[in-house]
Fold these 2 entries.
Entry 1:
Amino acid sequence: MSQKRIIRIGLLGFGVVGQGVWKNIEKNRQALEFRLGAQLDITQVVVKNASKQREVAVPAECYSTDPSRVVDNPEIDIVCEMMGGTGEALELTRRALKQGKVVVTANKALVCEHGEELFKIAHENGGHYFYEASVAGGIPIIKTIREALVANRFKLIFGILNGTSNYILTRMEREGLSFEETLGDARQLGYVEADEALDLDGIDAAHKAVILAYSGAR
Ligand SMILES: NC(=O)c1ccc[n+]([C@@H]2O[C@H](COP(=O)([O-])OP(=O)(O)OC[C@H]3O[C@@H](n4cnc5c(N)ncnc54)[C@H](OP(=O)(O)O)[C@@H]3O)[C@@H](O)[C@H]2O)c1
């Protein structure tokens, strides 16, 4: 009997999104593997501070602060970039794409500011740069715009783009709470970006609007 293919995945970042990916793969493993006809293996998880307490416990041999164990590892097929920011995340994404890997990202700031360059590197090296998770991943909207609605041209896209502001404003309105109180809860729940200005100054919503407009025009 032929051996089932193994798809090896490396996670860059293991915060709210990274641990969510781990939990979702574990929860839905049977269905995912059945549909893919392959086995999923989270081979490496990379973080900044390895001694931080986390909800999910990762086996020691898979856990490090060394991103090269993901991006330069020839065994890894898919790199999930969930670190955030446009500094090290950009360098690591470039490096992985230059090796022909598939990179999946939730990092809207990076897609918005450097997407054009990263799509080009992916194309030239036979890889892919997938960014569905960067905007309203739960819907999902990007694939819908780019594939299901490919013959349509959009004059306007509107909706609630920033979940953190939506959470804060909804609770302030319904419960008469102050901005500071609801912001505190949003922080505790992990809704607020590490760089809070992204959410609170509208930058995150602007990034998402750019990505949606770009996806409709590509
Ligand atoms: N939170 C959301 O609801 C949400 C939704 C959609 C998209 N996003 C996007 O997803 C990305 C991650 O968001 P998040 O909320 O998961 O952030 P987070 O909770 O702050 O997690 C970031 C993770 O990246 C790690 N990291 C940061 N810099 C690193 C470096 N230089 N080397 C290695 N690891 C590094 C951190 O390590 P430590 O844990 O050791 O510090 C942490 O595990 C962001 O781009 C964000 O915009 C977030």
Entry 2:
Amino acid sequence: MLKRFVLLTILLFSAPSMGFVVLIDPGHGGDEYGAVKTVRVKKGRKVKSERVYEKDLALSLAKKVKERLDPHYTTYLTRSFDRSVSLNERAEMADAVKADLFISIHFNSARDTSSHGFETYYLDNHADAAIKKVENIENKYLQGAEKVVNQILIDLVIQKTVSASRKLASEVHSQIKSKVEKKYKMKDRGIKPGLFYVLALSKRPGILIEAGFMSHHKEIWKLRRGAFLRQYAQSIADGVKEYLKGKTQKELPLF
Ligand SMILES: [Zn+2]
């Protein structure tokens, strides 16, 4: 009897939050490497060149986020191994699993190799030239004809999701700031609006994380560390939990 009561209590208390579905999206994959950085690593007595791919770092971080959210929500990855997935396929998955939130994970790269730090994006219009450079990198795998349709869709999605996405970005970013900024001496580059097609196509509240600059000669070493990725994943998970705390599905915008 007591066991049944305990079980019922657990179910009652866990039911509302377990109802949420979070889709975590590791950027790139397969032939699409994302950013690439060559580093020199010591192997025994030899020093060898090694290529680090954004697609691998993104998958590693995304899996860690999933592990941390799993006990609380229903979670999925848009890819769980190294394969190419189009932006449209990622968005279709959001519909298929009826995702409430969409979290896209990326690492940054810039021609200016002094750029460093972490930033969190949500879908919105803006006129910032520096942000357009990041958009160009992350949007480049969408075909020309699809872009025309998407301009109309983007406005509709922004209207419906922007306030939820901005709030989600703010909860996640403040967790990253408190857990990662000081500990790993990372620069806080802020919460920013961006026109990322993967966010627009997913049609739900979502964010795109740029967890650090692979092009920065010191930062790349931080990004490769398991401890850093675990801490960053914990921050994302805590931010999501903070955002969903006390919410019901009816309060989230859906198309
Ligand atoms: Zn990327």
